[in-house]
Task: structure prediction
Amino acid sequence: MLLDIVGVAITFIAVGVGAWFVAPYLARVFTGERVFLSPLVRPIERSAYWVMGVKEDEEQSWPRYAVAALAVTVASLVFTYLVLRLQDHLPFNPQGFPGVAPDLALNTAISFTTNTNWQNYTGEQTMSYFSQMVGLVMHNFLSAATGIAMAVALVRAISSRQLKTIGNFYVDATRATLYVLLPLAIVGGLILASQGAIQTLSSYPVAHTLEGIQQTIAVGPFASQEVIKDLGNNGGGPFNANSAHPFENPNGFTNQFEIFLELLIPFSLALMFGRMVGRIRQGVAIAATMGIVLMSATAIAAWAEQSGNPALTSVGVSQANTSSQSGGNMEGKEVRFGPIYSAQFVAATTGTSTGAVDASHDSLTPLGGMVPMVLMQLGEITPGGVGAGLYGMLVFAILAVFIAGLMVGRTPEYLGKKIESKEVRLAALAILILPASILGFTAISVLVPAGLAGPLNPGAHGFSEILYAFSSQTGNNGSAFAGLTGNTIYYNSTGGMAMWLGRYMMVLPILALAGALAGKKVVPAGTGTLRTDTPLFVGLLIGVIFIIGALTFFPALALGPILDQLQLVAGHLAGGS
Result:
């Protein structure tokens, strides 16, 4: 167990070191400076602008920026929907899979467009290689680049001096793809393939077992998909078992490498923020807030899972960590990883918007399962998805300085920009959209027969499965409690709406906030200005995040995982007596 804890610590340290060196590179990329990849990538970048008809030096106001992002999104959504529906007429389908059903194709297209990658299907039995490589992987790059672009737009607005524009969406998304995502994906894909992640266009081979049974083994071009799945915080794997499958996640090293990939860009963007505003300590404060919450969540989940299942303890089953067994709650977990590494993956994948899994979240203890649920309900800002985590955290930072300003009776400021009623209303609107969707769809689902038909478990755990589903879909995460039957017309439809609301209804007020901040004067700091690069502000920001989260979601959590945990402990005590 001690070695597992050391391994967790090493991974977090590696993320911190990697982010520190990647951040200045990101700052140079998005300010248009020359980087070491420029001789190779710059001609491709120019060609891309020529093909799209984009003027590189043409700036956009926030409405034009939003329209450009939505236009690209809608066009790519329609493209993916058609690919899925027509996959039986397209190449690279050696298994002869039929076209995907209309409601499932629409749900999947929305899912990958919004960076959610919620999967109401079994990948190796539903999607052709063409659908995986073109229809889905395209969105793994595009949706991640969109999130990065919108985060950069907000940072640019905060750091600017009375501008009416926030950049150019097409330029920001192109640079995010060509200079950041694609190079890292190529290197990471080669690393995963070298470790045994599968990468082939061959048909599924058939193996003959010793018992004389034929077994079809699913394969495909998946090392390349796996790396951008994690790096872009997408999460949708080609196999139903996701990162628990040895062809996606072959060994202990790749497990930690995938966690590293999930966290690298979100933390790098936080530090990039400090460099772009000219105050590195500001970025460190944001990254520290993200890191403290993430590591605390990892510790809670690891403790809950390593403590084991009280129901098994009451019947005399030993779940202690010994030299011959990892101990703890091993239900739904890979023996290659055990409870502690699985808990770190659980926290990383829901602290970001990745949604990949190396264990069954439905098999976690109720307290362990509440950790990923809470991380998603906070808005996935610790560190959040690529781009989405940073702009979500900056919204909370604006609310934190506003609350601090109320305490001392001063007009709040953030990096020299006065935070007034318009900015506060936009920030509050952005934060309220997520709980409105999560709690609204959950409430409807526990009242209508179509919703109640989904969970396979009764009582508090069944409620947790519904609450987790809409937390995941609205938060654009994509992970699931496996006990919910999601491939129905009801859940495909409501899930699709939740994913769209969680991505784009939240982004619109954030881009409007960027537009409002861009036009403000920078005022010099005074004696009463709250410093936002100190441990005190980090503590205040963490407090604001959890107070808002607790007030919003505690009643629902009390009906789900908290009640589930109390019932489990009560059953253990009754069994023990």
About this structure: The radius of gyration is 23 Å. The chain has 19 helices and four strands.
